[in-house]
């Protein structure tokens, strides 16, 4: 229980710190942006790389996302999501735009499935992160992987296909040759379990 | 108690797996359902966490300097533009849009009752507070039945557009929405819009850069995936004033 409380406090403190950085970025503070980059660039780059399967394109996508964060900082709404989730969804959207423009859907699906056996990777997220940020992020990543890994395989697969590609649930159902209702239920149950699991392990 | 069906939609919504119409319908469901909004927010955080399951990789150290240089350049450019550009001055497309607006007799004949109904429908989908409502009419060469209604809220830098009567863009093409803003030399992209087989689209949008003084919205036909600066023909246009 003590560990869970410490984890929740750390998450809240980090979210508050991120929100303060966003408020400064909205005022045009480049130093604040540099600090936010250090905190987020590793996970965002990793996400872009996983979806695009190409380092050069992932770099381009991250650059675009960074500019978007800079331009849209004033529009960030903390009541809707944490800064981290907001940035992740911006990145995902940007990568999907690139994937759609280049018509590489099949490759992404294949890459997403192939990666299933390789969820744990101890590599540092970013050279620029502080040691504390690095440790927190690695702990958080381990926690997420543990919770995801604890989901029934069909639920985890459906969530990962939905998240790491631009497929709609209709397309996922077709890809897996399953009824649409089955896919919807797998994603719902998986997401609810993921939410609950992340809460419990915080 | 949230039904399984709505929980399905919430999970798919935060994962971006609903198509445009389904997402719009879910957003309507959230408008007056605080419990559903709360669930969506929780699931959005869970979805964000999924990103951390990607194998961790290290972005090149040089990338940070490149990003910071881009941002410094943008900040400098914004300051220069503010200091030297006369509001309303602009290039190519901006002038073309301005000229079209002046020539538009279509607005004079536009069925105002119909426009009110269109606006009411947009408000039903997303009742943005303090939104400016803009009717877009077809430009020369566009289908006469094409039209759009925009609800734009500068404070939130977000809007909703409803389009009807515009045929599917076709292979290798996309429709792109633009905001003509007094603070920007060129129209600001507000994203790609896909119409369905019935020529209808209803989507939420944001501009890629802050647009506090939007004078007009326009839709052009561009290369697939969109372009940073408009190249194609303008099909729909409407003034905020």
Key descriptive features of the protein:
heterodimer; A: 202 residues; mainly alpha; 9 helices; globular; B: 241 residues; alpha+beta; eight-stranded antiparallel beta sheet
Describe the model.
The complex is a heterodimer of chains A (202) and B (241). Chain A has 202 residues and is mostly helical. Helix content of chain A is 78%, strand content 0%. The termini of chain A are close together. Mean pLDDT of chain A is 81; it is low at 1-8 and 105-128. Chain B has 241 residues and is of the alpha+beta class. In chain B, 39% of the residues lie in helices and 24% in strands. Chain B is built from 7 helices and 8 strands. In chain B, strands 5-4-7-8-1-2-3-6 form an 8-stranded antiparallel beta sheet. Mean pLDDT of chain B is 77; it is low at 81-90, 103-113 and 122-129. At the A-B interface, helix 2, helix 3, helix 4, helix 6 and helix 7 of A face helix 1, helix 3 and helix 4 of B.
Quick structural gist:
Chain A is built from nine helices and no strands. By secondary structure, chain A is an all-alpha fold.
Write the SSE topology.
The complex is a heterodimer of chains A (202) and B (241).
Chain A: H1 2-26, H2 30-52, H3 55-72, H4 83-102, H5 105-114, H6 131-149, H7 153-164, H8 169-176, H9 180-201
Chain B: H1 4-14, H2 20-31, H3 34-50, H4 61-84, H5 92-103, H6 106-109, H7 112-125, E1 132-138, E2 147-153, E3 158-164, E4 173-181, E5 188-193, E6 201-205, E7 214-223, E8 234-239
